[in-house]
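Researcher: I'd like a structural prediction for the single chain below. Treat it as a standalone chain; there are no partners to consider.
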Amino acid sequence: MIVVLDVKFIIAFLSKKDENHPEIADYVRELKQENPTIMFVVTNFILSETLTRLEHTLKISKKIVIDILESIESDPSIKVETIDEPTFRRSLHFYRNYLDKHWSMVDFTTYTYMKENNLDIIATVGHKDAIQFGFRVIP
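Model: Treating it as a single chain, here is the predicted structure.
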């Protein structure tokens, strides 16, 4: 099972101050028990936005954020994938053409990456719009 993670999901998992933390922490624990070979995918855009929010929005010290980064990079169940130039360009195309959507550029890069890699499960909090792209949203 491969699950793409989004920023809000990661922050809810990491931050005990997040209102969704208890539910997400329990969910991840159960998911890993049920799927011992699960692979979580985080794009470089998601990782960048997550680190930025942890430090600048949640005011977590840079030292702790670096510790979090190192734990993500060393976790064998997490794979950090790079959004390459062609994928980024296609994401910009979607960004320009979905004028009625208030999705971030990071969302579009994630959705484009998922489509191009035949991935269909995204773990997110409060971002059910991924369903419109044909993805299965968890939890």
